[in-house]
Write a structure and sequence with these properties.
alpha+beta; five-stranded mixed sheet; 31% helix; five-stranded antiparallel sheet
């Protein structure tokens, strides 16, 4: 069908939909779907209602949004800022045709497809008239007057966008009223919907959910390795209710440690043709916002039969790794299994055991196992460090929430040995499953992280040196080892947390792909995500591939592996997009909650950390970013032309990366989720102006 449509378009310079229907004999609705796919693939361009072959001087890309609100198009070589004249009409995940202008910006020619068509709006009163304000800035929504007359000020409504105009004006259809702007958790639900997540389920989906079992039958355990007598445990956050990984370790006579990582066998229940899988493909990931979760899989599965809950039988896939003293995996096996978790542990309690502070109640019989798991994890970590795995400091603040989702407390991140334990065990599991599939030549979705551009890293080093650091530029960055040596030097500085964020910003973002490009930051030749099939689509797909290998390996030879790879690649690209959306939704939600806490706070004076010096100064306050310019500086802040840095005339401390500033909050706007600050002075800095 696609080839037929392309031939018709090629035979004419341009053609409208009506004539295309006539010449192709394809029903209009079916033809529209074909045209959207051809546009998204960069084969056809639509302008002013006419279709033509995609011009060679244009590119096709996907719109994403940064934390600062700037819209970009992500490419394998980095991100391209979208020219301001065009950005208003765009929302996240729009597929667009664009050209690069002289300022290296993307000018949008056409919106090929709008993946996220549902959007929330708030009903506001302007004099005697009711208007609606869309969640995404720049989009203008038009609704029939009859609908507006039946709405009330403060209503949060859901609309469906019906067209793809590039002028920012969108015809929309009313879907329903979600609630009032003051309803509990309504803001989190709004944010989730506007990034492609929701808690709505179709009737077909809910009927299918009713067919899933509530417990594991003995019949289901036949043919599986039985680890129910093992003292396997789960270690997660205190409030975690969707536990997809458990673990156990035993010491061998040769001094090696055998580690069992038990991962929920979600694909025993979720099949490729099911409504549950179709929705999982759409969402791509679970979204965690404040105290709210928007599940990729329905809670009946994610909290029930697929969650490794304490004291109940659960079906799993188990990876068995024998780890030597140097952290190498000398023996590996993977099998279908059944377990019965003996303890639901949390990070805080396990930290106490590892630090030998105390033994929490209920942990008395697990101390030896916890310490053995930690020993195995430290062996693995030792190997990763040896081969150059990049150790970035934790940059996310620790947040505590009230039951209503409001921020209770924000504090600096703390090192957690138990969180580190789970991270190392799961990374090692993912690494070895990736190598196992790769060396068998079986298609999979890999988690890839490409080599950073050398000039970006050296540009960062030059910027840091201008701020008082003494760092040598890197001559080679083919492996992560050189970058790790730089990080080791930076660790001695108190500002390392802020510098870490700059290092992350200078590297490409990790993504999903069927092309195994390795993982630069982890210094691994092969890596994938397998350990969270409840929460992530790529893990779920990897489990489906493993099912074929474990249950019917001969089937591989009968399959068209190219078709399987193409199918997985489309899901990988979509999962990468939805991961970015989830990050933005989570950040936006946290930002709103923090701004609400700021607004309610009795004190106007806050402490900020400088995290970037560029055309503007970027600072972080309570975990959220904002920019400051000269207009935000008090009279006692002056500019040093020789250093190209601002300094405090009271103590001669410079404003540099990692500096602590005293700021006053101003202009908090909860509707637009924006705020600004006024810099009173520099509290501390690693660099001080020399005064004669």
């Amino acid at each position: 069908m696609e080839d037929k449509v392309l031939e018709i378009i090629k035979s004419r310079y341009s053609i409208n939909l009506k004539k295309l229907v006539k010449h192709s004999d394809i029903p209009e609705e079916e033809l529209k779907k074909i045209l959207i796919k051809l546009q998204s693939d960069g084969k056809v361009l639509e302008q002013d209602g006419k279709y033509k072959i995609f011009p060679s001087d244009l590119e096709i890309g996907t719109v994403s949004v940064s934390r600062s609100g700037r819209k970009y198009i992500y490419t394998p070589d980095g991100k391209i800022p979208i020219a301001s004249d065009f950005s208003n009409a765009l929302i996240v995940n729009d597929t667009v045709a664009y050209k690069i202008n002289d300022q290296k910006e993307a000018e949008i020619v056409s919106i090929a497809d709008r993946l996220l068509r549902k959007m929330t709006c708030e009903v506001v009163r302007n004099g005697s008239k009711l208007n609606i304000i869309p969640h995404h800035d720049g989009i203008k929504i038009d609704l029939d007057k009859e609908i507006l007359d039946n709405l009330y000020e403060g209503d949060i409504i859901l609309v469906r966008i019906d067209n793809n105009d590039v002028d920012g004006y969108a015809k929309a259809s009313f879907v329903k009223v979600l609630g009032n702007k003051d309803d509990p958790c309504i803001k989190d639900r709004e944010t989730a919907i506007n990034y492609g997540f929701d808690d709505d389920y179709s009737e077909e989906y809910l009927k299918e959910i009713e067919t899933y079992p509530k417990k594991v039958s003995e019949e289901e355990t036949i043919g599986r390795r039985d680890f129910r007598n093992q003292k396997a445990v789960t270690i997660d956050n205190v409030n975690c209710k969707d536990m997809d990984d458990g673990c156990y370790a035993e010491k061998l006579e040769n001094g090696n440690i055998r580690v069992y990582t038990h991962i929920s066998d979600v694909t025993n229940y979720v099949k490729i043709d099911s409504e549950v899988f179709k929705r999982a493909c759409e969402k791509g990931t679970s979204l965690y916002m404040n105290n709210t979760v928007f599940h990729m899989l329905h809670p009946v599965l994610s909290k029930g039969i697929c969650s490794l809950n304490e004291g109940v039988d659960r079906l799993t896939k188990t990876v068995i790794m024998e780890i030597d003293e140097d952290g190498h995996v000398v023996n590996f096996d993977i099998c279908k299994s059944v377990i019965n978790s003996k303890k639901k542990m949390n990070y805080d309690d396990v930290d106490k055991v590892i630090r030998n502070e105390e033994i929490p109640e209920g942990y008395e019989d697990f101390v030896e196992e916890i310490n053995l798991l930690n020993e195995a994890a430290l062996r693995i970590e030792k190997r990763y460090k040896k081969y150059g795995s990049v150790e970035i400091a934790e940059t996310e603040t620790k947040k505590e929430y009230n039951e209503d989702g409001s921020i209770k407390q924000v504090s600096d991140p703390e090192y957690s040995p138990s969180s580190n334990l789970i991270k190392n065990l799961m990374v090692c599991t993912n690494e070895n499953v990736a190598k196992w599939l790769f060396y068998m030549g079986i298609p999979a979705i890999y988690r890839v992280h490409e080599i950073p551009k050398l000039e970006k890293i050296n540009s960062l080093i030059e910027s840091l040196n201008n701020q008082g650091y003494k760092l040598k530029k890197i001559s080679n960055i083919d492996t992560a080892e050189d970058l790790q040596l730089l990080i080791e030097k930076l660790k001695k500085y108190p500002e390392f947390n802020a510098i870490s964020q700059l290092i992350v910003m200078s590297m490409p973002r990790a993504k999903y792909s069927t092309n195994n490009l390795g993982h630069f930051a982890l210094a691994l030749l092969a890596y994938l995500h397998y350990t969270s099939p409840i929460r992530r689509l790529p893990d779920l797909c990897v489990h489906m591939v493993i099912d074929i290998v474990l249950e019917n390996f001969e089937k591989i030879s009968q399959m068209n592996l190219d078709e399987l790879t193409d199918w997985l690649e489309k899901l990988a690209q979509h999962a990468s997009k939805m991961e970015r959306n989830a990050d933005m939704a989570e950040y936006e939600s946290e930002k709103r909650a923090i701004l609400e806490a700021m607004e309610k706070s009795d004190t106007d004076e806050l402490e900020a950390t400088v995290i970037e010096i560029n055309k503007k100064i970027r600072i972080k306050i309570m975990g959220i970013d904002t920019f400051i310019s000269e207009a935000n500086l008090s009279n006692n802040i002056a500019f040093d032309n020789s250093k190209k840095l601002y300094y405090d005339k009271n103590n001669y401390e410079y404003i540099a990366v990692g500096s602590k500033l005293i700021v006053t909050k101003t202009n908090i706007n909860l509707t637009n989720r924006t705020f600004s600050v006024y810099v009173q002075g520099v509290k501390s800095s690693h660099i001080k102006k020399k005064v004669k």
